[in-house]
Amino acid sequence: MRLYQGIRSLILSLFRKILFLWVRTDVSGNTLEALGLDPDKPVCYVLQYSSLSSRLVLEQEVIHARLPGATDSLPVKNGPAHSFFYLYKRIGGPFSGGRQTPVPTKEFTGLVQFGLEHPEQDVQIVPVSLFWGRSPDKEKSLVKLLLSDTWSVAGRLQKFLIILVHGRNTYVQFNQPLSLKQVVDEYRNNEEKAKRKLARILRTHFRRVRQAVLGPDLSHRRTLVEGLVRTQAVKEAIRETAAKDDIPPEKVRAKAYKYADEIAASMSIVTIRFLELALAWLWNRIYNGIAVNNIKVAKEVAQDHAVVYVPCHRSHIDYLLLSYVLYKNGLMPPHIAAGINLNMPVVGPILRRGGAFFMRRSFRDNPLYATVFNEYMHVMFTRGYSVEYFVEGGRSRTGRMLPPRPGMLSMTVRSFLRDHRKPIVFVPVYIGYEKVMEGRSYLGELRGKKKQKESVFGLAKTARKLTNSFGRVAVNFGDAIPLADVLDEVHESWRSEAYDAEYRPTWLTEAVDELSKRVASNINASVAVNPIGMTATVLLGTERLAMDEGQLIRLMDQYAHLLRAYPYANTVTLPEGSARDWVAYCENMGLITRQPQKLGDIIALEGANAILMTYYRNNIQHLFALPALIVSLFENKTSLRRDKVLFLTSVAYPYLQSELFLKFGQDEVESVINKWIDVLIDQGLVIQLDDERLGRPEEGTEAMLRARILSRFIIQTLERYHITLGILRKYGSGKLTAAELEEQSTLLAERMSILFGLNAPEFFDKTLFRNFIANMQKTGVLTTDDNGLLCYGEGLDEVAEDARLVLSVEKRQAIQQVTMLDA
């Protein structure tokens, strides 16, 4: 027997070496840390299908990762001879390709019996999923049906062809172990029920992993496009358009088909594999690495939900980067909503085959196009496809999160109301660049240069940048947002109501607004703090954009410690190393300059970099918003009562929350402010004078310097608010429209930017003033009369007087000169 086992082991080892002359694998979860294995308990791996090739791949990966051996004998009597077993037992002849069904094998039965007979012992069962090629199925495609690892079970000839075609793109996923003891404990006196329970858990697990990795079955694109035109909603839109424009229905139908063909993606596994290789080369060329954090959120929800990935939008690279990260981590790339401007020659077809579907910038005046697009989105969600779109609409030129646009979110909500059998979950994603590729063009646009239209020639120009280094990139996944939970909060009885393709319930706007806020705040709560952002934040807080190197290093270390003392969210990531490392890194990236000096080198921002660095400062500004606001109240006051600090911070918070998408709700912000006050006292940035009063540090101390620079992290935002309040008070109640107030505020902000050399282009951004005015209307500080003029009461004067606490004398005088208010 021992001789037989030795010969068998030798033959299998030879087969494994032959197989891996061809096969190349991409593996996830194959570390002791990721699996969390207990070294004192035996390990048993379980594969879904009885397959020699799968067994050989498993053995190879276990050996390569130095995990407990799959070929070792398991110390379990009457159980598996080796430390693995198959869940599915093959039925049929060796060459029949017979159907495999999930019936218990003798190894499975023996393992369960051991667990029942030895309650004091446990076995760690590690499910392992294996995919050849990871190609989603395409209906009516014979080649794909034969040569893809799909939802169906392959026969032996088909498996040989699959390995031949896709063996060099094999994906293996090790998953968290199950405890045999915990699974069978419930049925110690009923072996049959214990076996059924373990088999059910494993079957469910494999199905969920397969759903996440392969995605749902894909319809053939032509079939999908034709099906869209045949839907009831599109038929109705065709009839209405034909009647309204007096066009024959056949021509309108042809137009609807053209729209559907223009929109629909044509995902191709060949293109995805090509992009994977091309992008791996690209990332290695231009980046120093990609850090992926908290991706377990996406892996978990992808198993049972239609996932909507909602990343922030900072660069055209975002499209490619997220799909690459998902694919490399064992998830099916999403269908991506892309602007029609990207449907360029050469580039457009590649993006479409990579999963992009194209949408026009606006289709409010084209009901036929709107209906076709809505139906396409409905098909995506009801079939369980993962989808990606950017809620901001366009790329942020300032580094801040832009206000979400309701269009795609509204379509998603309406689709879910029509058919909510497949739950939808939003997964926010923060993509953080240390050096954004379009940085210089953003700088030009902020200075008034016209945005350049995307073209193949523009792409060729961008290709010249590939010799540059753009640092590291972070892809952070935020906390998932189940759509049903949001709807439950907004309109509890939504499930009992009937909806059709055109119905818009009265509470839809409220639901979309709430969803928008939650998505934006969860993206910001997943921010990746990097050395560039920290250095930019501190240097931009100095008066001359320069500082002694030693002092800069101390301040950055202290502000990083502040973020650790009261973490904004558990999904925020901080940079590795110390401030000294960060300064050296920024210098190496060419973003700061060093001026040697005998008393100590000076680090400075110069030229275009001074403005460009505001982009990276704005990425993380929201993390410092509350502590900076609290400290800024002592800019012109040596002391304040604690309740006054709490009141003033609470008054300003709704406007900061709206502008910076802060995550704390109104019901929790008071406790958060109190916690920050305590942290600032511990850090020496605020002094506890007595039980009721708080003070600022003594002038001339390093603590005062830290407090002053910290206050400057938020001071320009507060100055913008004061500009608007000042103009309102100059003209008086009922004298200005919202548009006029926005225009006047923008002009004064631009003037102050010139007078005081402010480097932040967003200081005179019309959108920010518009948002502030809208929020004052929402909170009731401003009302609108019948003529559209803004009205206010005495409360605004009190708020304006309090707001002056944060302004320097020079800036109060500059505002006074224009608004003619008392200093």
Automatic annotation (TrEMBL):
Keywords assigned: Acyltransferase, Cell membrane, Lipid biosynthesis, Lipid metabolism, Membrane, Phospholipid biosynthesis, Phospholipid metabolism, Transferase
Pathway in which this enzyme or protein is active: Phospholipid metabolism; CDP-diacylglycerol biosynthesis; CDP-diacylglycerol from sn-glycerol 3-phosphate: step 1/3; Lipid metabolism
Main location: membrane
Pfam families: Acyltransferase, GPAT_C
GO biological process terms on file: CDP-diacylglycerol biosynthetic process; fatty acid metabolic process
UniProt cross-references to SMART domains, sorted A to Z: PlsC (SM00563)
Annotated membrane topology: Peripheral membrane protein
EC number: 2.3.1.15
Protein localization: Cell membrane
CDD domains associated with the record: LPLAT_DHAPAT-like
Signal peptide range: none
Record comment regarding domains: The HXXXXD motif is essential for acyltransferase activity and may constitute the binding site for the phosphate moiety of the glycerol-3-phosphate.
Homology family: Belongs to the GPAT/DAPAT family.
The protein, known as: Glycerol-3-phosphate acyltransferase
Annotated source species: Marinobacter excellens LAMA 842
